[in-house]
Design a protein that fits this description.
By secondary structure, the protein is mainly alpha-helical. It has 3 domains: 122 residues, no CATH class; 196 residues, no CATH class; 70 residues, no CATH class. A hairpin with a 5-residue loop joins strand 6 and strand 7. The longest helix is centred in the middle third of the chain and has 38 residues. It is flat and about 150 Å long.
Length: 501
């Protein structure tokens, strides 16, 4: 029943369009939910595309079945036509009494907020833990493959690799012709391409990739691909037999010997050994061998150029992909740098927080979307709140050392979070009041002192030094009596009051 098939296709496409519009109204806050929505919409679009293609083929009606079915419905008894089509339906369900019926409304229905998915979504298994749902690259395996390539002399760490993985001048052209390098650059290109497809399912990347392919074809034909420019002839000619390139050197058919570079081969052509070998070969009339060498050389050069093209194409694709994902690249570098300063316990806490956020984050309690202002803030790590009422980023929390506790006994064992708050509190009212209760009136000398006994000891020492200093000042002035005896001023006046002078 072709008409029923067409009706079903149009109905299904309308449901798919409504489902897509409904999902575009969502504004997921978490990257996992946003990716799940985008991939679901991409799946709906693929289904619409497939069904529309099927409907076009039915409308073309190359076999004429649709026309005959339409004519039979329009010319015969409508009731008879109805029962004729109802009969096979009843027979089918009689043979299959428990056949389930596909509920399209439920299949395309949007999952309510707080409702758990019956099974893991595609996004849950699409990314590794290091990729964090498409926020960062996971190129550790590629980094290991790169540092073990033949010809890589300088061993770079992972941070340096993230900065330079799209720069291919670290490997010589001769080493690039090895199978190991081709496997590496092919894996790198495939990873970046699939990563971009996973994080951007709705951006029509096929057209973008086709544009890059055409750009590469144009640059390759014009000999403009960076690092793979074909060497132009410099006007010198090779006197002697044809050469055979093997991908690693130049073959001399007369001497049956291979030379690593073109300069060494040219110097060899003027040698006596080569001249004698060429003359002996010419005397025997071995032209067929020379022609065969020319043919072999031509084929070998052609194969080598094809291999160069394959490697250059993948390097070109890697540069384009890395340029299109600069944000993810810089975020990856910042994430790796941040994790380098974290302990294993802190990494585990962060991973647990991310897992709990996926399972029961904001909106998981079934609250309405319109109640976002009254929504409970999800803060498993107990991070301080920023000006907008939301927790500050974890990296900022670590940067300012807000996880370090500083207790002050003078302030009543009050705990200050972070060095900045601790340094600031010495000039605040709480600390000054604590010093006043201890009888300390000068607070300038008591910075960084938090213990009560330590503060008392210092205050007692300061007072003692003041008294000693006063005594020394008093002993500076010397007095002399009538008999020429010299004494301190205080002693002189005491004796004078007693009438002893």
């Amino acid at each position: 029943m072709l008409i029923e098939d067409l009706r079903y296709i149009h109905e299904d496409n309308e449901r798919l369009e409504a489902a897509i519009a409904e999902r575009f109204e969502e504004q997921p806050r978490h990257i996992r939910d946003r990716l799940a929505r985008d991939h679901q919409i991409a799946g709906f679009l693929d289904r619409i595309r497939q069904q529309s293609q099927k409907a076009l083929e039915l409308y073309k009606d190359d076999s004429g079945d649709l026309l005959r079915e339409t004519q039979s419905i329009g010319t015969g008894d409508p009731y008879q036509q109805f029962y004729d089509r109802l009969k096979p339906v009843k027979e089918f369900h009689k043979r299959n009494p428990n056949e389930p019926v596909e509920n399209l409304e439920r299949a395309y229905k949007r999952r309510a907020i707080g409702e758990d998915a019956p099974f893991p979504t595609e996004v849950d298994t699409m990314f590794t833990g290091e990729e964090a749902f498409g926020r960062y690259f996971d190129m550790m395996a590629l980094h290991e493959e790169f540092v073990n390539l033949p010809g890589v002399k300088r061993r770079v760490n992972y941070m340096q690799y993230l900065d330079s993985f799209d720069k291919f001048d670290q490997v010589s052209k001769q080493d690039k012709m090895r199978e190991e390098y081709f496997s590496y650059v092919n894996s790198l290109s495939q990873y970046l391409e699939t990563f971009m497809q996973r994080i951007k399912p709705l951006e029509g990347l096929e057209k973008l990739f086709a544009t890059w392919d055409s750009d590469f074809e144009k640059d390759w034909e014009e000999n403009k691909v960076e690092g793979w420019e074909k060497e132009q002839p410099n006007g010198a000619t090779h006197d002697g037999p044809a050469t055979q390139g093997t991908g690693e050197g130049i073959w001399c058919a007369d001497c049956e010997k291979e030379f690593k570079t073109d300069n060494v081969y040219r110097a060899h052509l003027t040698g006596k050994k080569h001249i004698r070998a060429a003359a002996a070969r010419e005397a025997t009339g071995d032209d067929n061998t020379s022609n065969g060498a020319k043919s072999t050389a031509k084929n070998t050069v052609s194969v080598q150029r094809l291999k160069e093209r394959a490697i250059a194409e993948r390097e070109f694709r890697v540069k384009k992909l890395s340029g299109a994902m600069q944000t993810e690249r810089s975020d990856t570098r910042a994430n790796v740098e941040r994790k380098a300063g974290m302990t294993e316990k802190e990494r585990a806490q962060e991973l647990q927080a991310l897992y709990e956020e996926d399972l029961g984050g904001p909106g998981a309690n079934g609250a309405e979307e319109g109640d976002s202002d009254d929504e409970k803030i999800y803060n498993p790590l107990k991070l301080p709140l920023a000006w907008d009422g939301k927790p500050i980023p974890f990296w900022l929390y670590k940067l300012h050392g807000l996880g370090v506790e500083f207790a002050c006994e003078i302030c009543g064992n009050y705990v200050y979070m972070g060095r900045r708050a601790f340094d600031k509190h010495f000039s605040e009212a709480r600390h000054l009041y604590g010093l006043k209760c201890l009888g300390i009136t000068s607070s300038g000398l008591f910075r960084d002192i938090t213990g009560i006994e330590e503060a008392k000891a210092l205050w007692e020492k300061i007072n003692k030094e003041k008294k000693t200093e006063t005594s020394q000042v008093d002993n500076v002035v010397q007095m002399e009596d009538s008999e020429g005896n010299v004494m301190p001023e205080k002693v002189y006046y005491d004796l004078q009051k007693q009438g002893l002078l």
